[in-house]
Sequence to fold (222 residues):
Amino acid sequence: MNTKKLAAERAVESIEEGMTVGLGTGSTAYFAIEKLGQRVQEGLTIRAVATSKRSEEQALGLGIPIVPFAEVGRIDITIDGADEVDRNLQLIKGGGGALLREKIVAARSDKMFVIVGEDKLVETLGAFPLPVEIVPFAHEWTLDTLKALHLNPKLRLDNGDLYVTDNGNYIADCHDVQITDPAKLHASLNAIPGVVENGLFVDMAHTVIVGRENGSIDMITK
Fold:
């Protein structure tokens, strides 16, 4: 049972005629875009914005119309995955490297539907490394500050080279951090000069759709 696909396809059922849809990034969002493309080919009329170059390319290849951000007022629903979800629907995102764009789009959305397999549900965030997007300039100093906060940062690599986001930045993945107060840590990280954004999505998820190995689906709404 592909729990990601199960949750993704359920989320796409919520998309209605004429909506503006935010398209997430990553392995779970991939399934949502595929299903949405199928619905568009069957006659659904929507418009969309994407959170990464690869999601935009996937959507265009399926006939999903991508519109410029300048033409979008509000987004009706954004569908995206998550790397971890706690019982208060706080999230860690950014494993796919698009956390900044994902957060910008989510903040512009009336609703954010988060799609996950049951393995992503946790009691306390932090087993998954927390991504922090940082500017290349003086990134060594930014890493020093993260180390001083005992966040165990390591620069993300891509085939041996430094990983570079669609925005031209680096990602420091912070390992083995028990995040008991996501809002406090979020504020502390974003107050650091050199930090662009971090992967904590605090009070942004409207609904979490969980696909389970037995084929059932849970919908958790605040």
Remarks:
- Helices lie at 3-12, 27-41, 53-61, 99-107, 139-148, 182-190.
- Residues 27-41 form the longest helix (15 residues).
- The chain has a mean pLDDT of 96.
